[in-house]
Amino acid sequence: MLRLDKYISNATDLSRTDAKRLIKNGVVCIDDEVASNPAQKINSDQDVTIEGSTISKASKRYFMLNKPAGVVSVTKDNHNPTAISLMYEHRSEELQIAGLLDIETTGLLLITDDGHWNHRLTSPRSDCAKIYQVGLAEAITPDYPQQLAEGVILEGEKHRCMPATMEIVDDYNINLTIAEGKYHQVKRIFAALGNQVVSLHRFKVGDIVLDPELESGEYRPLTALEVASIL
């Protein structure tokens, strides 16, 4: 249930102040009865009209963004541009970033205002694999696949990472698949293997693949199939 003024704001381009003004002017009705209290709670099955026109409850929103380097994966930051600042969406303050990327990592970032969907995606129990293009300072060695499959122990931690897999692109570049989202995990994995990550780009989360049509900094809504793939 939502307050009437918030319901109107969520479903339109009106601010809550504008919504309160309309309610005060007597042009908002709930199930054909004139509404007078902005704080009145609304059920999703109730009919809300403004000057006789029905408004619908805003649906949940889901986006993919091709994150550039130099952009932080937070909603607000006093020093750096944020992923949300790249998006021109109504009620952008309600959007959440689902699965962070550090400031220099590029690629697929998922953004939503559906908290339950976000939790399913980022929960430790989630089986949403993440695939990264990794560029390394030193050439890979033949023991990398086995060490990744066994689970690398990160500095400062007692337990091994979950098994990871790699696909060799060339001597210095791989596609790495991991099933976790530990802090700076990919960089820490290769630091533990005596190497250094020099470039990192995420292009897949679960079954959602970064749209090749999106330029750096661009975004688009997810399709219904993409949304449904996060179970």
The number of distinct β-strands equals: 15
**Helix-strand topology string:** EHHEEEEEEEEHEHEEHEEEH
Q: Report the biggest beta sheet as strand number plus sense, adding barrel if it closes.
A: 9 strands, mixed
Number of helices: 6
Helix content: 10-25%
Taking all Cα atoms into account, the compactness measure Rg is 23 Å
Q: What are the low-pLDDT stretches, counting only 5+ consecutive residues below 50?
A: none
What is the end-to-end distance? Answer: 24 Å
> Judging by the overall fold, what is the CATH architecture of the largest domain?
2-Layer Sandwich
Number of domains: 2
CATH class annotation of the largest domain: Alpha Beta
CATH topology (fold) name of the largest domain:
Pseudouridine synthase
- From the spread of the alpha carbons, the general shape counts as elongated
Class derived from helix and strand content: alpha+beta
The percentage of residues in β strands lies in 25-35%
The CATH H-level superfamily of the largest domain is Pseudouridine synthase
Mean pLDDT: 91
